[in-house]
Amino acid sequence: MAESEEKAEEEAAEAVKEESEEPAAEEGEVEVVEPAVDEAKPEEQAQAQEEPVAEGEGQPEGESQPEGGAETPATEESSPEGDSPEKEIKETIGDRLEERITSAEAAQSDGSKKPCTALCATILDGKPDTTKSSTNMARKFVVGGNWKMNGNKEQIGQILNFLKEGPLNADTEVIVGVPAVYLEHVKNNAPANVQVAAQNCYKADKGAFTGEISPLMLKDIGVNWVILGHSERRQIFGETDELVADKIAFALQNGLKVIACIGETLEEREAGQTETVIFRQTKAIADKIKDWSNVVIAYEPVWAIGTGKTATPEQAQEVHKALRGYISSNISPDVANSVRIQYGGSVTGANCKELGSQPDIDGFLVGGASLKPEFVNIVNAKQ
Ligand SMILES: O=C(CO)COP(=O)(O)O
Fold this sequence. Notes:
Blueprint: H1 2-21, H2 23-27, H3 36-40, H4 42-50, H5 71-77, H6 85-109, H7 116-125, E1 141-146, H8 153-165, E2 172-177, H9 183-189, E3 194-198, H10 215-220, E4 225-228, H11 231-236, H12 241-253, E5 257-262, H13 266-270, H14 274-286, E6 295-299, H15 313-330, H16 333-338, E7 340-344, H17 352-356, E8 363-366, H18 374-379
Helix pairs in contact: 1-6, 6-7, 12-14, 14-15
1,3-dihydroxyacetonephosphate binds next to strand 8.
EC number: 5.3.1.1
Subunit structure: Homodimer.
Pathway: Carbohydrate degradation; glycolysis; D-glyceraldehyde 3-phosphate from glycerone phosphate: step 1/1; Carbohydrate biosynthesis; gluconeogenesis
């Protein structure tokens, strides 16, 4: 990483040197600087020419830049020799290019295979890198407890007690996935810092679908989250990628937030199919939705669910990172950067801290341990 940064710095310094030596020095006349970035992106040229008057980092695109301002200082005030505005422009562009190259190189040096276009965009636009294994503070840690088909009123009372006592890290979003018949009860009795999710809902608002519940019904009782596509729904109840995706799309359309579960079976992992499977499951969803802002992805390797066989932090991180890369290339870098990816599968109070310290693990979906007081420790994994 140090080497690539040095290389980027040298290259950028070289670029600045070349720029500042070229036309102005030879011809002694005013000429707008044409750095490498200009050819690739004309609007960047205009912006870059305006930037010398501003201090500090790159600005949001199009902000507070009067139209036509680019040419004014260069054409009216420059002089053939000395520290002309052109030279300052060149130096400023050089500095910024250097920062951007350094940042992009750093992103690549972590091993992520960024597509060239994303790398170029990072350099040219100065946009925050979106595909590196990130330490992005914008992704709030999110821990879900999936109670599955467990609990009665007495046990739920005990769970609510330990949730109330906590204390629960205020920087972590907490959601409990509750059997349908207890949703309203839990909603009415859970502490305010604990949200409630259904474990399933159908892709229609109402009708002849015996045994199903609709997103509208959930909203009606104040439930704002739903877990969809859990491997138990896929395996035991035969839910296909397509049905899961339809249900996710319909839930989102109706104002629910969704924990969308994906994950490979043991056979698939052993056959080297992990990425193929989770990319396929993700694509099915991506084909049906555009806005990912209300989606949390839960990566739950099926072989780790309820088995006590947790994926190692490295195994989980590897898959999360690959998935984020897939999302960056096939959905968008912005979604890759912002979507939270939980890990699920035998998460406990004992292994949560190490798992939670991985850069692409943004929380957990917890089964068995969410019924026990250790769930509080899992919620607090980042403390
Ligand atoms: O399926 C899970 C959460 O949805 C994980 O279950 P366990 O934590 O019991 O392995």
